[in-house]
What does this fold into?
Amino acid sequence: VVTTTRTYKDQVYRTHLLRRSYREDGKVKNETLGNLSHLPDELIEIIRRSLQGETFVPVASAFQITRSRPHGHVQAASAAMASLEMASLLASKPCRERDLVLAMVVARIVAPHTKLATTRWWHTTTLAEDFGIAQADEDDLYAAMDWLLERQDRIQKKLASRHLSAGALVLYDLSSSYFEGSCCPLAKLGYSRDGKKGMLQVNYGLLTDARGCPLAVSVHEGNVADSLTLLPEVQRLREDFGVEQLVMVGDRGMISSKAIQELRETEGVGWISALKSVSIRALVEQGHLQLGLFDERNLLELSSPDYPGERLVACRNPELAKLRTHKREELLAATEANLQKIKARVDGGKLAGQDEIALRVGKVVNQYKMAKHFELAIGENAFTFARKTDAIAAEAALDGIYIIRTSVSAAQMDSADCVRNYKSLANVERAFRS
It folds into this structure.
């Protein structure tokens, strides 16, 4: 390959020609076989080196794969943590404990395991080398957890200063996890959200901003009521995190009437919650809420002397109404079918005795939670049942209706925003699941 260069009007032109030399009548002559100038420089160089005797082989043939480890998922989680400045959040200066905690967070996201299993798993990826903790064992991880616990308050204060400002919306909810063991002083029998009845559990509360970004976590005894944990969290937000003005958002069980009374005495703290179904029914019976208004719109604001100084925002969700109607009818039908089986056995003389019949009936109505919708008559050798049509119709009239209650003024937050902010509690539930 011969390359010639010429300059014309300050422009440099290069020509690459494929040529061969040969002898004819004792003289050396050159023949141009082709013009390679249109080819990329890299390809021209390969042609030149090939003609000089160098051998080229496919890349796949030039290397032998001795080991391959996954990296993409580790890199994705690591990059996300870097964008959130997780490292500086944990500690301002690099240290081994910080690296171990960051590695555990990545492992928890990518492949949750016990501490021992984690130290085995991360050697199957690039995680251990990426964070420089290849020699760590499970004892090192537990020690890093102790280090993290000591820094919990500082980390949570950093999160609060990063995500909360004056008048901020703070979401709060409580969840629980069943407990295996007998040495934890917080493990108690309580309302199980795991469906693990009869097992010890611990409760934990989570504070987040309006987006559901976690700010702080607290752990409580397994039998503590949700509402009893609210005021200490408000106090922590104000005194420890320095957020003097805020709006707490909690569900019906969290922001109870007693808690509301105490919040009213706390200056600078507003709240958003919702009414229970029995309270909604009372408003309808008292005439404060007219269901016919929902024919015109699905959101309206009302007031009641039973809730002084509060705004009540009534909403109707047609899709939720359909869902609840369908679900109730399914439960009613299932209850009737099972009650009919019991009645057939009683009528056939295969089941007798008032106590024995009542026991079988109780199992059915408690299973489907439909006892309030049936009229039951149990005798020594007789059993009849019928639907309470009036009670069913009264409940159906409230399908899809819920009422938000709040102390926040209309100037600060309109009705639609009150509803929207209450619904944002779903973000806390999402944080629990993740």
In short: The longest helix spans residues 318-347. The chain has a mean pLDDT of 89.
